[in-house]
Design a protein that fits this description.
The chain is of the alpha/beta class and about 600 residues long. It has 15 helices and 31 strands. It has three domains: about 220 residues, Rossmann fold; about 250 residues, FAD/NAD(P)-binding domain (3-Layer(bba) Sandwich), CATH 3.50.50.60; about 100 residues, D-Amino Acid Oxidase, subunit A, domain 2 (D-Amino Acid Oxidase, Chain A, domain 2). Helix 1 crosses helix 2, helix 2 packs across helix 4 and helix 8 runs parallel beside helix 10. It is globular, with a radius of gyration of 26 Å. The structure holds flavin-adenine dinucleotide. Flavin-adenine dinucleotide binds next to helix 8, strand 14, strand 24, strand 29 and helix 14.
Length: about 600
C-alpha cells in the first residue's frame, strides 16, 4: 500500500493528490450515491421484506455511499432486519475529511458523526463497525482490492463499483478484480457503477454480468447497471459461508457465560428465538462471573493471529459495552499500561483498553428481545433425534430440543462433546479486596498488565475495590480458593508494581483478602473454537468456546463470526483469521472420532 496524502480540499471539492482525481464533485457525491449506486441496484425496493441485505463496495472513499445507504435504510419502514455494508479501501481518509464531506448534506451529518466515533483511522485488515444496536454493520476492509476480495467470504446482494477513474487507478478495474468481484455474487446480485467505459463493460460481461446503459447523472451521459446472470453455472467457492438462506426459527445455546450470552444476542438480533440453558442458578456461573477483568489487545512482534483477533475483538467488545453498560460503574475504557519487563522492552500504553464487569455484560446481553434464559438446567448429554438435537439431564429427561444447538459451556463443553476436540482446563484465581484510605499514593492511576495484572479501582456496592490477577494451573478443575494462589499472585505484583505490592503487603497476610476462582477453557494452539461440528459428523451442532484467558476480548467477535457463518454474511474478520478458529483447523487434532454423544 502506498502512503500518498489522502484528501486535499480545493474550493470545497475533495481531491486525491495520489490519484490526481476528485472523490466527487462539490455537491454531487450524495446524488451519485442515490442515482447511480442505489437506484442502479434497485434499492430500496429490492431489500424490502428481506431479513438481511449485503452490499459490497469497492472504494469507500469519503463514505457517502455508505451514509446514503444507511439513511435509506433508516427511512424505509420495510427495511431488512440487518443491513451489511462491506467496503474495500486502500487509503482510508482522516476522520475530519469524513465529517467535512458530510457537511454539505445536512441529512447525513448525524450519521457521519456516529461513524466518526468508531473510525479512528483504521490500519490494514478488516474493521467491523456497528450501528443501530448492531442492525447496520460496516465491514471496512483496508488494503488493496484484490487481496481484500480474496479475504471476503460472502455473497453480496448489491455491488457498488466505485473508486477513482479506471484510467488513473487501473488495478481497481482490471479483469482480475472484476472476476474476483463476480465470485462474491449469487445469480441475481445487482451491480451499479458510474463508468460506461467499453473495456469495463467487456470485462464485466465476460465475468457473467448482464448490463444495461441508462441515462447518467450530469455531466455524465450514461451510467451502468446490471445483474449477475452468467450463461454458465457459477462455481461455488471453497468458502466457509453458506450461500443459501436458512430458515430463521428456534435454537438452543448451552451455557450462559460471555460466549453463550454473546451468541444468543447475535442470533436474536437476526430474528432467532434463542433458549439459553445453564446449569447455574444465575447467568455467568463460570469464568465469566469474574468480578472485573481487562479488555486489552494482545501484542506480538510478528502480529500473530491472536494479536489480530484480539484487536478486532476488543473493538467489538467495546461496541457492546458502550451500548449496554453504565460507564464508570460497570466499565471504564480508561487505558491500560502494559509492562514488558521480561523482554526488557519499554512499557506500552493501550489507550482504548480498560476494565469491565463481565457478569453485567452477560446479563445485559441475555436481556435482549428474543432470548429466554433458563437456569438450573444441567445438560448431561446431547442426543440426535431425527433432524433435532435433544438435550438431556442426568435423569435422561429431555430438557429441550432444536435442530441447531450451540455449545458454549466453557471447559464443560469437553464433557458434552467427548473426544471431539482437545479442550483443556486452566484453573485461575483472582485476588481482590477493598481499597483503604492511603492506598491511592502507591496505586497506579490506571490498570497495569504484564505477567499478571492489577486493576486499581472498581466501584462495588461495598466500596472501591482493587483486583490482582491471576493464577494459571493447567488441567485443574478445582474451584476451591487457595492461599498458595494468592501468594503467587502477590509475587507477580511485586515484579509488576513493587510500590503497590509494599502497600498491599498486609492485605496478603490478613483475612480481608477475597478470591474469585474458576476454570478457563483453552486449546493446544491457544485460540478459541468457533464453528460447525458437521466435519465431526455432528450436523446442526455448533461450538463457541475455548476463550482461554481472553474471553472478555474474544467472545463478542466469536459470536458475530458464528452468526455471520449461519447467514452467509460478511465475516467480521479476514477469511484466513476466521479459518484459524474453525473446529476442523489443522492444529486441533481430536482425541478420537466423534461418537453418538448419549448412549441410547
Ligand atoms: C481468574 C480469572 C481471571 C480472568 N481474567 C480475565 C481478564 O482479565 N480478561 C479476559 O479477557 N479474560 C479473563 N479471564 C477469562 C474469561 O473469564 C473467560 O475467557 C470467559 O469468561 C469464558 O467465557 P465462557 O462463556 O466461554 O465460559 P464460562 O464463563 O465458564 O461459561 C460457561 C457456562 O456454561 C455453563 N455450563 C457448564 N456446563 C454446563 C452444562 N453441562 N449444562 C448447562 N450449562 C453448563 C456454566 O454454568 C457457565 O455459566 C479470566 C478467567 C479467570 C478464571
Amino acid at each position: 500500500m502506498s502512503h500518498a496524502p489522502i484528501v486535499e480540499w480545493r474550493d470545497g471539492t475533495p481531491h486525491s493528490p495520489g490519484f490526481n482525481d476528485i472523490y466527487h464533485s462539490c455537491a454531487g457525491g450524495l446524488a451519485q450515491a442515490r442515482q447511480v449506486f442505489m437506484r442502479g441496484c434497485g434499492l430500496p425496493q429490492a431489500w424490502q421484506h428481506q431479513s438481511q441485505w449485503r452490499v459490497l463496495e469497492t472504494g469507500f472513499g469519503l463514505g457517502l455511499n455508505f451514509l446514503a445507504t444507511w439513511q435509506a435504510w433508516q427511512d424505509d419502514p420495510q427495511r431488512p432486519t440487518l443491513l451489511h455494508f462491506a467496503s474495500i479501501e486502500a487509503h482510508p481518509v482522516e476522520v475530519a475529511d469524513l465529517l467535512r464531506s458530510a457537511q454539505d448534506h445536512p441529512e447525513l451529518v448525524a450519521l457521519a458523526q456516529e461513524l466518526s466515533l468508531q473510525w479512528r483511522k483504521p490500519g490494514p485488515g478488516f474493521h467491523r463497525m456497528s450501528f443501530e444496536g448492531g442492525r447496520v454493520l460496516l465491514t471496512l476492509c483496508i488494503g488493496d482490492v484484490k487481496p481484500m476480495l480474496r479475504e471476503l467470504a460472502f455473497f453480496a446482494d448489491s455491488i457498488f463499483l466505485d473508486g477513482f477513474s479506471p484510467a488513473l487507478n487501473p488495478a481497481m478495474w482490471d479483469e482480475h478484480t472484476l472476476k474476483a468481484v463476480s465470485r462474491c455474487c449469487h445469480r441475481g446480485t445487482r451491480i451499479a457503477t458510474w463508468t460506461v467505459a467499453r473495456d469495463i463493460r467487456d470485462r464485466l460481461t465476460q465475468s457473467g454480468f448482464v448490463l444495461e446503459m441508462v441515462p447518467g447523472l450530469a455531466p455524465k451521459r450514461d451510467r451502468l447497471q446490471g445483474e449477475f446472470n452468467p450463461a454458465w453455472e457459477p462455481k461455488v467457492r471453497a468458502t466457509a459461508v453458506s450461500p443459501l438462506p436458512i430458515e430463521i426459527s428456534h435454537c438452543i445455546v448451552v451455557g450462559s457465560g460471555l460466549a453463550g450470552a454473546a451468541v444468543a444476542a447475535s442470533l436474536a438480533r437476526r430474528g432467532w428465538r434463542v433458549t439459553v440453558l445453564d446449569a447455574g442458578s444465575e447467568p455467568a456461573a463460570g469464568a465469566s462471573g469474574l468480578p472485573a477483568g481487562l479488555v486489552v489487545p494482545h501484542v506480538s512482534a510478528d502480529d500473530a493471529v491472536l494479536s489480530r483477533l484480539s484487536r478486532a475483538g476488543v473493538d467489538m467488545t467495546w461496541q457492546q459495552v458502550h451500548s449496554l453498560l453504565r460507564e464508570g460503574q460497570d466499565f471504564a475504557q480508561c487505558g491500560v499500561r502494559e509492562r514488558r519487563l521480561e523482554h526488557g522492552l519499554p512499557d506500552l500504553w493501550h489507550p482504548l483498553a480498560g476494565w469491565i464487569k463481565p457478569a453485567q455484560l452477560v446479563r445485559a446481553l441475555l436481556a435482549q428481545p428474543g432470548i429466554t434464559w433458563q437456569g438450573g438446567m444441567g445438560v448431561q448429554c446431547l442426543r440426535r433425534q431425527g433432524e433435532c438435537w435433544q438435550l438431556l439431564d442426568a435423569q435422561d429427561r429431555v430438557l429441550a430440543e432444536a435442530p441447531r444447538v450451540i455449545v458454549c459451556a466453557g471447559y464443560a463443553s469437553h464433557t458434552l462433546l467427548p473426544r471431539v476436540l482437545p479442550l483443556q482446563a486452566l484453573r485461575g484465581q483472582l485476588s481482590w479486596s477493598w481499597r483503604s484510605a492511603g492506598d491511592g499514593d502507591a496505586f497506579p492511576a490506571s490498570p497495569v498488565n504484564g505477567r499478571g495484572n492489577f486493576i486499581p479501582q472498581v466501584p462495588t456496592d461495598q466500596g472501591m475495590a482493587w483486583y490482582l490477577g491471576s493464577s494459571f494451573e493447567r488441567d485443574s478443575t478445582d474451584t476451591q480458593a487457595r492461599d498458595s494462589d494468592h501468594q503467587s499472585n502477590y509475587a507477580k505484583l511485586r515484579a509488576l508494581l513493587p510500590e503497590t505490592a509494599r502497600a498491599l503487603a498486609t492485605s496478603f497476610e490478613g483475612s480481608q483478602l477475597q478470591a474469585f476462582t474458576a476454570v478457563r477453557c483453552t486449546t493446544p494452539d491457544r485460540l478459541p473454537v468457533v464453528g460447525a461440528l458437521d466435519g465431526k459428523n455432528l450436523p446442526g451442532l455448533w461450538l463457541s468456546s475455548a476463550m482461554g484467558a481472553r474471553g472478555l476480548s474474544l467472545a463478542m467477535l466469536c459470536a458475530e463470526l458464528l452468526a455471520a457463518l449461519w447467514h452467509g454474511e460478511p465475516l467480521p474478520v479476514e477469511r484466513k483469521l476466521a479459518q484459524a478458529l474453525m473446529p476442523d483447523r489443522k492444529n486441533l487434532t481430536p482425541g478420537g472420532g466423534a461418537t453418538a454423544l448419549c448412549k441410547d
